[in-house]
Amino acid sequence: MPLAVQAKTRRRLALLFTVPLAFSLMFFIANTQAENTDIEILSAQNLRSSLNNLLVLAQDAETSERGFLLTGDEQYLGPFQQAKLQIKTQIELSRNLFKDHPELHDSIEQLIHRIQFKFDQVDKVLAIQQASGFTAALQYLKNGSDRDTMDAIRSSADRMQVQLANDLSNAYEHQRSMDRAVFIFFLVSTAVSIVVLISLYYTVLDYIHGQEAAQAELSKLNINLERRIADRTQELQDTNEELQQFAYVASHDLQEPLRTITSFTQLLAARYRGKLDEDADEFISYIVSSSRRMSDLINGLLALVRLRKTGKPPAPVSLDKLLSDALTSLQAAIRESGAVVDAEPLPTLAVDSLQFTQLFQNLIGNAIKYRGAQPPSVKISARRTATDWIFSVKDNGQGFDPQYAERIFGLFQRLQNREVEGTGMGLSISRRIVERHGGKIWAESQTGAGSTFHFSLPVTLEAHLLPAAEKVAVTSAG
Question: What tens digit of pLDDT does each residue of 266-277 get?
């Protein structure tokens, strides 16, 4: 899927998920406002109830006072006594309730003062009755001060009730407005949510279809790429085969004219040696030595071409035996140089026996060829790690500068002078052999201090670790 399409899809999904979050926040705010309105309504109702209670207690005091004075029956004093016990608590409760309403603070304090004054008047009337009798108490009531106090209490309570009723009515109206707004908002949010869900559904569907289309396109590209790789690989294989065939044919066909040149040059050297001048003898010697070197180079190329072809299938074989075969091939050089070869026991591994015989022959042959002043001494050892067998071929020869430790494994690379016979292909062939078996080869040396060639082979080449099918026939990588 293109990056632009993915970015657009992400933006749409972010927007679609933002809408429900925004509605949730708005619902929370609306719910908070509704709770505040409910608190206002409850507060107004409590204030009205508190006013009613204060007014009822004042009326109980007045009714009890008048009933007692008119009848002389003390039972009428019961409501007053009860009201007197409750009035203090009710006053404190009312003050607490009106504390959060500073606009009514003066009115409630004035009402409380008048109610307390009313209860003081009733106490005074009862005191007059006890001291001077009912006539004096009734005469005090007729003066009208008691009635005026009660009228003022009612008037103050009525004004406050009207104000509280207005506040309560406003709160109810606000609550109804909020309910209507929430209902409308609910309808709108529901519709928007449905639209969002539908849009989200189609967005996800488009994304899935886009993914499927991208996957199909990717699969198509992979198929085309695999086909092109297969075609290219086949072309490279064909070209490689043609190059190998050409190298093989060219090297093989060059042998015959080179033999002819070498034979006739040697014939000239034998027949006319001493009969021509010294320059002629020297020229003939150059031709013979160059012909031999050319023959060695062609043989090296043939060996390299043969190595690139599928060799003998590896099979478990004792490397001690392969080393012995290599030493047998090198007997002439060993006797001539006085070389001593010491070898520790070597393991049995699944390798190409011909190639590894050649590997040992190349490494030991180099140790003899590039020997120092002392007779060659070659020590061969092997040690096992968790993953590899590490082989070492150490000599006491001329050695070389460590900076050339990698270069010596290249084709036609020779660090020593040309007086030493060789083509410079032995170590390159040795590297190909080791790498064909899944290992690697490297060298350590110092000039004049000998050299040590190491090569590793995976422990999976051990016979007991080979899969059953590979124990019968192991195919080596080309």
Answer: 777 777 777 767
